[in-house]
Amino acid sequence: MQKIAISLKNVSFGYSKTRVLDRVNLSIPQGEFWALIGPNGGGKTTLLKLILGLLKPWEGEIKVFGKPAKEIATKIGYVPQQVRKNMLLPLTVFELVSMGVRSQKRGFFYASKTKEQVQEALEKVGISSLASKSILDISGGQFQRALVARALVGKPEILIFDEPTANVDPEGKVCLYELLSSLKGEMTVVVVTHDLVIASASIDGLAVVNRQVRVSREKELSSQLLSLIYGKHTHACAVDGFIQEIPKYFASKVK
Amino acid sequence: MEIFQFSFMQHAFVAALLLSIACGFIGPLVVINRQVFLAGGMAHAAFGGVGLAFFFSLPVLPTVFVYTFFLSLVFGLLVVNQRELSETIVGIIWAGGMALGIILLDLTPGYKTELTSYLFGSILTLSKSDLSLACVLDFLLVGTIWWKYKEFVTISFDSEYAKTLGIKVNNCFLILIVLAGFSVVILMQLVGIVLLISLLTIPVYLAKPKSDTLYKMIFKSTLWSLFFSYTGLFLSFYFNLNSGAAIISVAIFSFLLVNLKRMLLNKESKTVFVDGQL
User: Fold this and answer.
1) Whole domain around residue A164: which residue ranges?
2) Nearest residue on chain A to B163, judged by CA atoms?
3) Number of domain units in chain B
4) Do the chains contact at A80 and B160, CB–CB below 8 Å?
């Protein structure tokens, strides 16, 4: 039987009196690649924060490898959503990635082992030449890759990404999902994403989050499923009307 | 040199070295964590400690140290537990500390000649025991920042991510606030409560542009602080000026000069670009 990496049983959570997640059940097997999808405000990021132990559930039980997340923080790598650069903090790409290395040498400088680990992680995401650059001098996409390297550098058993491709160009998105897909088996990967088409090529399971969670092992994303997840589009698109009007316009010109 | 023949000036130069190290180490952390207002509040609230020392006829610096230590703990606990209200809390403690100091001084009989030296700094009030206390505080401050440097970098960058690493973010912020309190005690005698905030910020501003890591910023801030305080002490001695005002004036003058240079260089580079286009 496959070992369960993440398990949630009847988990509910909310902010002040608003319930965001309601009796959620979810089991993610070890070594699989799962995508969490759903509309904005559906509770995806909240679900991740509960798994990471950053939030306490109102009710229910959350286990990571059979233990509370806080007890095994070293086994989880995390890339948060929308990390804003602190413009006042001088920080190199190397230092940013080194944050993910556990039990570091004290003081201002870094052990040679840390340097090797960081270099290896940077090579994995293809930005090893940027190690000494300031984070203020790199693009949004390169910054995102550095955050992925930071998550990888601690050699975690579970990788959790909250919209990792927010600032990445289309080619970069494909590269990133290829990288995440290659990690499958070696570690459990959970990604919150709206890049359904790219993600669907690599995933083992899909969890649709909107107050509750529905799980699917279907890789194909039908338009019917998407309508159910994001709601049906009912208003007529201006662009649709425009395209229908074009032939009429040309016909009138010929006359 | 004549200036070094006087023991009070020797004390002042040792104090200037200690305060430069304190400013250089804590200033960047205060600025990058946007805690300048909090540090200002702490400095002004420390006036309550001066009032206590005068009222109970206690030695001023040790009294201010004990008072500021407990004040920073209370301050820190309130701020880390109610982040959204931190500015309001700082405002209350800022005014409250000043009010306490003024009331206690009003209730203290006699004329308080030394009072202005704690508000605006003085080179005449430094004793050997004060220097010893400042030295211990400097050692604690530098040691703690060195020991927790990587945690401080991580929480300054992204405190939520730091939590996922198991870093006790609230404790780190509390330590930072207590260290800021230590720096207030070290700076108070030479620069004064009212003026010390500029020594926590100006060196950082000047050190920032060419620093790509926090420890380089710390090193450069320390050098800038040393330059301001030593130049200020010379001016203070030869022109019979208040030490705090002289040190801060040098800092402000350097700040203006560096900005002017940056503006001119900027203008020059723009001109070159236009010429290139032509």
Assistant:
1) 4-84+156-254
2) A54
3) 1
4) yes
What tokens were used for A80? 């948060």
Residues of B in contact with A92 (CB under 8 A): 212-213
Supply the mean pLDDT for chain B. Answer: 87
The answer to whether A134 touches B212, Cβ cutoff 8 Å, is yes
pLDDT tens digits, one per residue of A117-142 = 999 999 988 888 999 999 988 887 78
Cβ–Cβ under 8 Å, residues B24 and B198: no
Q: Are A212 and A24 in contact (CB under 8 A)?
A: yes
Please indicate if any CB of chain B lies within 8 Å of the CB of A81: no
The answer to whether B157 contacts A74, with C-beta atoms less than 8 Å apart, is no
Q: What is the pLDDT of residue B63?
A: 93
- Residue contact A99–B154, C-beta within 8 A: yes
Cβ-Cβ contacts under 8 Å, B164 against chain A = 52-54, 73, 76, 78
Go through chain A and tell me how many residues it has: 255
Partner-chain contact A99 B31, CB within 8 Å: no
Contact criterion met (CB < 8 Å) for A92 and B165: no
Nearest chain B residue to A49 by CA distance is B164
Mean pLDDT over residues B165-173, rounded?
Answer: 90
**Domains contained in chain A, number:** 1
Q: What pairs with residue A37 in β-bridges?
A: A208
Q: Is A202 part of a structural domain of the chain?
A: yes
The domain in which residue B42 lies consists of 2-277
Partner B contacted by A100 (CB < 8 A): yes
* CATH code for position B67: 1.10.3470.10
- Is A88 in Cβ contact with B34 (below 8 Å)? yes
- Rounded to an integer, what distance in angstroms lies between the CA atom of residue B4 and that of residue B164? 53
- What residues does A8 pair with on adjacent strands? A26, A62
Written in H, E and C, the secondary structure of chain A is CCCEEEEEEEEEEEECCEEEEEEEEEEEECCCEEEEECCCCCCHHHHHHHHHCCCCCCEEEEEECCECHHHHHHHEEEECCCCCCCCCCCCEHHHHHHCCCCCCCCCCCCCHHHHHHHHHHHHHCCCHHHCCCEHHHCCHHHHHHHHHHHHHHCCCCEEEEECCCCCCCHHHHHHHHHHHHHHECCEEEEEECCCHHHHHCCCCEEEEEECEEEEECCCCCCHHHHHHHHCCCCCCCHHHHHHHHHHHHHHHHHC
Judged by a CB distance cut-off of 8 A, whether residue B157 touches chain A is yes
Task: Tell me whether residues B158 and A80 touch, CB distance under 8 A.
Answer: yes
Higher pLDDT, A234 or A18: A18
Widest pairwise Cα distance in chain A:
82
For residue B216, the surrounding DSSP H or E stretch is helix B214-238
What distance lies between CA B158 and its chain's CA centroid? 24
What is the ipTM, given to two decimal places? 0.82
Burial B159-170 (b: 16+ CB within 10 A, else e): bebbbbbebebb
Local confidence band at A198 (pLDDT 50, 70, 90 cut-offs): low
